[in-house]
């Protein structure tokens, strides 16, 4: 720790396998309280602009230049910008506040800065140069947001699929009822040939189609970022060389749609479908859904049951402010969600717990090995899931500062079995102890085992709207 991050606080409930964990929610609360107490604070506003002029802002306070802690503003604001970029998405950031803070963010989020990965990815997602602008808090542009309904179309004969990094699921759905579902282990990241990806997805769709009299529409969810069915960023295809990615993967789902005679076809981020699945099955809104699988996927449905057009790529959003926290292999940044709520997290913590796993096995297989140890009463395995539970309790409170949140839906392979029960129980206990107001407002919901495994594919099936009348 250094003098600039004095506001990092040790949690009252310390994760058994990670005593250096420093929750953002505690750090942010401490920073704001001290800035207010100083009598030398001033407002700061961060706005991010995404597609179609959509712009959303976040308001906070920082120390003025008259306070000796002014430099600590830099780390505090940088972590907020990082979270907002991956929560809401944006090719443009506007900083309304002290010029020195804006200049620091501008320098950090350049091709040569520490956050070059984030700046470059946002430029690729939105097909626009990434930029940071500086103004004053009272001259910020007005918010422009546009929520829209998502899915919930279950009439007719549909196929839904869900593509994860370690398994793919497919379901055949007739008038809202699943008549067939299947889950298959695969390793898409290990395949450089685009034809493999096309063939695997087509095989799943054809297998589901056998169980339907016809196919009226196909909907899918997949890890990554998708715009108008085009692949923008997706870890599933990281093994494909860039030139082949542009030629074959960028328009992969357009090619699959053509193979199905151009019937209504939609594919979106798996996190959004997670939230949609929860909203549909539970009959609730104001829901943030996350899937703890090969990585961390997130999606949000607002109080009206609509999506707000945010990115919700929480795998890259900070959940630990400790500068020595583990860095994820893709972005190189520390303390991001993928390292805490995923198969990677379980494997990382297994090392700390003294469990030796077979590195020749996939992450998903190693997770199963840990879960088997858990079922056999191994205390080391229990410590892994308890640690993830403490992480999650503090992170739910952190998310509640950025989302209008009443329901927290939790899915994914990491949450299966006894280990998943421990994660939820520990998270709820952490919330009740540290954040009773959040615990009272936000309900953590875990669907039953069957819904966890295929609910995503069924919700995905509801994505396309069928304009014409359906045969009976």
Number of contiguous helices: 14
Oligomer status = single chain
The CATH architecture of the largest domain can be named as 2-Layer Sandwich
- What kind of sheet is the major sheet? 5 strands, mixed
Helix content: 25-40%
The portion of residues forming beta strands comes to 15-25%
Label the overall shape.
globular
Order of helices and strands: HEEHEHHEEEEHEEEHHEHEEHHHEHHEH
Given as residue ranges, the uncertain stretches (5+ residues, pLDDT < 50) are none
Structural class: alpha/beta
Q: What name does CATH use for the topology of the largest domain?
A: Nucleotidyltransferase, domain 5
End-to-end distance, in Å?
67 Å
Spatially, the strands of the biggest sheet line up as 7-6-5-8-11
Mean pLDDT: 93
Description of the structure:
The strands form 4 sheets. The chain has a 5-stranded mixed beta sheet with strand order 7-6-5-8-11. The protein has a 4-stranded mixed beta sheet with strand order 2-1-3-4. It folds into 2 domains: 101 residues, no CATH class; 326 residues, ATPase, nucleotide binding domain (Nucleotidyltransferase, domain 5, 2-Layer Sandwich), CATH 3.30.420. It is globular, with a radius of gyration of 22 Å. Helices cover 38% and strands 19% of the residues. With 472 residues, it is of the alpha/beta class.
Tags for this model:
38% helix, 472 residues, 15 strands, alpha/beta, Nucleotidyltransferase, domain 5, 5-stranded mixed beta sheet, 4-stranded mixed beta sheet, 2 domains, globular
Write the layout of secondary structure elements.
Blueprint: H1 24-38, E1 41-49, E2 55-63, H2 72-88, E3 92-96, H3 99-108, H4 116-126, E4 131-135, E5 157-163, E6 167-174, E7 177-185, H5 194-209, E8 217-222, E9 225-227, E10 230-233, H6 242-249, H7 252-259, E11 265-269, H8 270-282, E12 287-292, E13 296-301, H9 343-352, H10 363-375, H11 379-399, E14 407-411, H12 417-434, H13 436-441, E15 443-445, H14 449-461
Parallel strand pairs: 3-4, 5-8, 8-11, 12-14, 14-15
Antiparallel strand pairs: 1-2, 1-3, 5-6, 6-7, 9-10, 12-13
Helix pairs in contact: 2-3, 8-14, 9-10, 9-11, 10-11, 11-12
């Amino acid at each position: 720790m250094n003098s600039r991050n004095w506001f990092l606080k040790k949690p009252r409930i310390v994760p058994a396998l990670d005593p250096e964990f420093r929750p953002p929610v505690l750090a942010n609360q401490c920073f704001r309280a001290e800035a207010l107490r100083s009598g030398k604070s001033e407002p700061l506003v961060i706005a991010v602009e995404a597609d179609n002029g959509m712009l959303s802002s976040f308001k906070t306070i920082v120390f003025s230049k008259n306070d000796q802690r002014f430099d600590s503003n830099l780390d505090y604001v940088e972590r907020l910008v990082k979270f907002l970029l991956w929560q809401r998405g944006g090719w443009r950031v506007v900083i309304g506040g002290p010029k020195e803070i804006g200049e620091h963010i501008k320098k950090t989020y350049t091709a040569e800065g520490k956050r070059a990965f984030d700046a470059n990815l946002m430029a690729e997602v939105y097909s626009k140069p990434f930029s940071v602008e500086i103004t004053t808090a009272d001259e910020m542009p007005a918010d422009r947001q546009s929520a829209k309904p998502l899915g919930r179309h279950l009439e007719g004969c549909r196929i839904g699929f869900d593509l994860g990094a370690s398994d793919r699921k497919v379901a055949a759905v007739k008038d809202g009822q699943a008549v067939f579902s299947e889950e298959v282990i695969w390793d898409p990241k290990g395949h450089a040939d685009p034809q493999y990806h096309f063939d695997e997805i087509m095989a799943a769709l054809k297998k589901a189609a056998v169980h339907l009299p016809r196919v009226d529409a196909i909907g899918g969810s997949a890890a990554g970022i998708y715009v108008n069915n085009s692949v923008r960023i997706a870890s599933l295809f990281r093994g494909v060389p860039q030139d082949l990615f542009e030629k074959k993967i960028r328009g992969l789902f357009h090619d699959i749609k053509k193979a199905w005679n151009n019937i209504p076809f939609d594919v979106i981020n798996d996190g959004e479908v997670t939230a949609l699945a929860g909203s549909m099955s539970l009959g609730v809104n104001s829901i943030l859904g996350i899937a703890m699988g090969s990585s961390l996927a997130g999606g949000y449905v607002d109080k009206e049951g609509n999506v707000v057009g945010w990115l919700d790529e929480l795998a890259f959003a900070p959940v630990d402010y400790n500068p020595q926290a583990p860095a994820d292999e893709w972005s190189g940044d520390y303390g991001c969600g993928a390292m805490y709520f995923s198969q990677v997290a379980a494997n990382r913590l297994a090392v700390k717990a003294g469990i030796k796993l077979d590195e020749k096995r996939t992450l998903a297989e190693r997770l199963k090995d840990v879960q088997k140890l858990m079922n056999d009463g191994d205390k080391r395995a229990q410590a892994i899931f308890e640690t993830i539970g403490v992480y999650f309790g503090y992170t739910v409170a952190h998310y509640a500062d950025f989302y209008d949140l009443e329901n927290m839906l939790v899915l994914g392979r990491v949450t299966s079995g006894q280990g998943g029960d421990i994660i939820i129980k520990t998270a709820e206990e952490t919330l009740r102890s540290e954040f009773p107001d959040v615990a009272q407002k936000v309900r953590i919901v875990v669907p039953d085992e069957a819904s966890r495994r295929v609910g995503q594919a069924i919700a995905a099936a509801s994505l396309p709207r069928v304009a014409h009348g359906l045969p009976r």
